[in-house]
Write a structure and sequence with these properties.
The complex is a heterodimer of chains A (about 130) and B (about 70).
Chain A lengths: L1 H31 L4 H27 L3 H31 L4 H4 L1 H23 L1
Chain B lengths: L1 E2 L1 H8 L3 H8 L3 H8 L7 H11 L3 H4 E2 L5
Antiparallel strand pairs in B: 1-2
Helix pairs in contact in B: 2-3
The chains are: A mainly alpha (about 130), B mainly alpha (about 70).
Chain lengths: ~130, ~70
C-alpha cells in the first residue's frame, strides 16, 4: 500500500513541478518580452496542458489512498477552498476602497496562496488524525 | 466508539506497521483508528476483525454516548 502511494506521490510531484516550470516560463515570456498577440495567447494557455496532467494524477492519487488519507485530503481541500474564498472576498472588497497594485495582487500572484492554504489544511488535518 | 485494536495487536505481537500491511492501509490510518480519532468503514472493520481472527464486535464497541 505504501509502495503504491509512493509511486503515485512521485508522479504527482513530477507533474506538479512540470506544471510550475511551464507556468513560470510562460509567465516570464508574456511579461518580459514583446510577443505577437497570437503567440502570447498560445503561451497563456500552454500551462493548462501540464496542469491537466497534474490534476489527473493528483485526483487519481487520491483515489488510490486509504480512507484516512482521503479524509485528510478532503479536509485539506475544504481548508484551501474556504481560505481561498476568504482571500478573494477580502481583496474584492478592498479593491473598491483602496487601489490594489496589479503588480502585487494580480491573478497570477494569487495562485501561490491557494497552494499555501491547501498545505495549511494538510498540516492541520494531519495533526488531527495523527 | 472504543476499540481493542492495541490488545489484539499485542496478542499477535504485531506493530501498527504490521497490521497496516496486512489490511492494505497506511500506518497512520491504523494509528488514527486505534486512538479513536477516525471511525473506520464497515469493510475496514471487517478486514481488521478477519486478520485478528475474531469478530467486529470484539474489536469495536459502542460507548454510552454513541
Amino acid at each position: 500500500m505504501e509502495k503504491i502511494n509512493k509511486v503515485s506521490g512521485n508522479q504527482i510531484l513530477f507533474y506538479a513541478i512540470l506544471w510550475a516550470v511551464t507556468f513560470i516560463s510562460c509567465l516570464v515570456a508574456v511579461k518580459e518580452f514583446q510577443l505577437p498577440k497570437t503567440l502570447g495567447i498560445v503561451l497563456s494557455f500552454l500551462p493548462t496542458i501540464t496542469f491537466v496532467f497534474f490534476m489527473y494524477h493528483f485526483i487519481k492519487g487520491i483515489g488510490a489512498m486509504d480512507e484516512v488519507q482521503r479524509r485528510i485530503q478532503l479536509e485539506a481541500a475544504a481548508w484551501g477552498f474556504t481560505l481561498g474564498i476568504l482571500l478573494l472576498m477580502t481583496l474584492g472588497l478592498l479593491d473598491h476602497v483602496v487601489t490594489l497594485k496589479k503588480a502585487d495582487w494580480g491573478y497570477t500572484h494569487l495562485i501561490p496562496y491557494f497552494f499555501v492554504f491547501y498545505l495549511i489544511g494538510i498540516i492541520i488535518t494531519k495533526r488531527k488524525y495523527d | 466508539m472504543k476499540n481493542t485494536i492495541k490488545v489484539e495487536r499485542a496478542k499477535k505481537n504485531w506493530t501498527q506497521e504490521d497490521l497496516a500491511g496486512k489490511i492494505g492501509v497506511s500506518r497512520q490510518s491504523i494509528n488514527s483508528i486505534e486512538t479513536g480519532k477516525f471511525i473506520p468503514s464497515t469493510i475496514l472493520s471487517l478486514k481488521m476483525a478477519k486478520v485478528f481472527g475474531t469478530t467486529v464486535e470484539t474489536v469495536f464497541q459502542l460507548e454510552k454516548n454513541d
